[in-house]
Target: ATP-dependent RNA helicase
Amino acid sequence: MYSRYIPPPRDNPNSPNADAITSSQLSQIPPKPQPTAYARYVPPPKSSQPVSIHASPAQHVRFDEDDEVGREEPPAKRLKLEKGKAAIQTRDGEKPTKSKKKKRKSIQLDDSVDSTAAVDGAMVDQMDVQPEAQEDMPNGSEYADMQQTSRSPLSPAREATLPAEKPPLEESTKRKDKKKKKKTKEDRESSVQIEDDIPVRHKAILEKKAKSMQMAPDPGSEDVVMNDVAYKVDDDTLQQKIPETELHGLEPIPQPKPVVLDTSAPTYETLPPWLASPIRISQDASVPFTDFGLTLGLGIAPEVTERLASKGYKQAFAIQTGVIPLLLPNYCKKMQGDVLVSAATGSGKTLAYTLPMIRDISQCNRHTTRLRALVVVPTRELVKQVQQVCEECAGVFALDGAKRRARIVMAMGSQSFEHEQASLIEREEVYDPGMYQQRMKRLSRSHLLSYDSDDNENSDYNTEDEEKDAIRKREDRLQTLPDHVIAYKSKADILICTPGRLVEHIKFTPGFSLDFVRWLVVDEADKLLGQNFQQWLDVVIPRLQTQDRIGARNHKQSNLSGVRKVILSATMTRDLEQLGGLRLRQPKLVVLEGSKLQDESGGGIKHTEHVLPVLLAEAALKVSDPNLKPLFLIDLLRSRYILNTAVDASGSELDDDEALSSGTDSDSSDIESDPASSKKLTRSSKTPAKYRDMPTVLIFTKSNETALRLSRLLALLAPSIESCIGTLTSTMPYATRRDTLRSFNARKIRIIVASDLVARGIDLPLLDHVVNYDMPSSIASYVHRVGRTARAGRTGKAWTLFTNSEARWFWNEVASENVIQRKNPVERIRVTEEKNDAFNSEVAAYEAALEKLGQEAGQARHR
Ligand SMILES: Nc1ncnc2c1ncn2[C@@H]1O[C@H](COP(=O)(O)OP(=O)(O)OP(=O)(O)O)[C@@H](O)[C@H]1O
Model:
């Protein structure tokens, strides 16, 4: 690799131009800008023959007689030039050696004809071999001649090559005069002879010139042409000359050492190792519960396993095989850290944490109840569901009363706050005269006497101390027996709650303390961490960091002390900022692998953030006219895709109308009102036996309002199925929602129209179909919605209606296998599109139903 070449000053007599340019031809050459930084580099010759940089280029130069540049020179100069040319030509193209040069010198003395030319030639040679030619230095007169010769445009360069030493002045002046006389005489004679010799000598040159003019111009001659001097050179000469010029003093510029390329694959990982390289559990893993525990006594006892099997939990599911051993106690010195779980919907995450947690709490002193575990979930429905699983496990570990049964309490706002307080905390009066006196002193303070508890009941406190102070003030005002004070006892070992309600109890429930808590479970963590209801993390976590009571947070059968945190979701966040709020200790992430997808690039297994249940089938259908969307939905419900399983008792398939007809003549009472809803449930329970096998469908809408409207619209459009339809929104009373879910699980109602209230966590084991009537707001939302079906190893189907504007996002993101890992791709069905015309007959009925809906809404507003 070469950079551009910076030529030195033109002091090289070997330069092809050197001799030529000494002529006045150079007066024609426009002054060439002195290269200041770079000159062009010409690579070395391709010729395999080594080219000597000492070879005199002048030997090969053929001067043209007709050269106009030469003719313009003054006669004296021209004569000198001619002499020089002649002398060069006489050397016959050989490189002069030292001995030759000496010889030539002596010849010069004898042969006066060629003396001037010889001086020039010798000088050229001297310059050529300058470093070793000190002994060949010219005498005084030669030196003068050289100076004269060097007064050409190239003279500065030539002078630069001359030796610094000069002969003494007197001697040289004498010699000069002598020589001058001699030289003048010789010049006169030689000029006559040269003129005679010219035609003969130039004959060969002229012939070659004529020949060369017929040949194609050699690309190598470019440099010569570029100098604007019309040199006529033969091919061989040019081949040698050009490299000679450019090779002068040229050395490759030192280059930095080549960089050794790092061939290792780059890693763009910014996550900590525990998050970047989780513990991966295969879908196929399944073991008996008895296999857990490093040694006997630390795992799940055989009698417990038997009871679990009787409840339907025969073997541990895959995710349970990964999580339960991490949460069971062991005596190893290494501290057991917190556990994060990311596993598909319906994979059994609830049992994965409830079993080890309740096992631990069941080992506690059977006469002391302390709040030892907090389970935080986002909705009331989930609170209830987790409570049921916990109760099952508590019963299993109680071993029919042989051991202590863990006490489980819920706090979710479905009951009054006082009612919840009473279920959480037991208050009793204890004899304690010392504490009683202190209480009286506090009461006697004036500000406390004027304290009105009602005014400050719900005020917010900035610090924990302010909160405690406010609670104590309220306690002090309570009436007690003399010398008695109030003491509080926890009624719960495990509290299952929503975050908002938990914060309220921390702030306003006297005696409610987290001092003994040693388990914190956060289910549906991405939602709870993302929304941070009432800043619950900021309130709860600091209270779990304290170690005020010695040994309060010690784990049985383990060296562990402190709060064990278990964080779960089907769409677990990898956001370190969110997770940071949990103040995790030595965490481990356990991930349930999806169906194995080959990575296109490396052939390895592709890991995506979200995984769907293996037995879930997905399909999508386009709504070509969004105004008629309810008709598209009804069409889907009636289609063979959903109702093909509607088989009557005799086994014959029902036709669509029959299938959608409930056979009841219930009037459409408002589903929102709790009593009406209860009545409706009673009526819907009268669904004829022939609809027993009608599939169950959960329809998701984008909002509470849409769910209510759609539910009513479906009932108006198909009155016969009204009793089969339930509605679930967060605006409905909890009791109504609970009853609806119960009826659905009992298959008394078959269709639920719901908002995202039940999109997460709700376990509906008998659900056959999920329909996304409205597009979910996010990919995570889609995963949770469709995950209500195909749970615990069952099959299920999910349908998504998409409009033109939603198609792109749906197919590029939701249906992409790079985003959500699924076994089979999303199928596109065209039920509705095939029947576009068929809607014409239904549009009138649809418009009538909409009008009715409007009237009902108006009436509801006036009420
Ligand atoms: N070992 C087991 N054997 C049999 N059934 C089980 C087992 N573990 C869990 N199940 C059942 O699997 C179903 C789904 O469990 P669970 O609700 O815990 O799922 P999940 O992973 O929490 O789902 P989601 O992410 O939707 O909340 C439940 O009906 C549960 O009873």
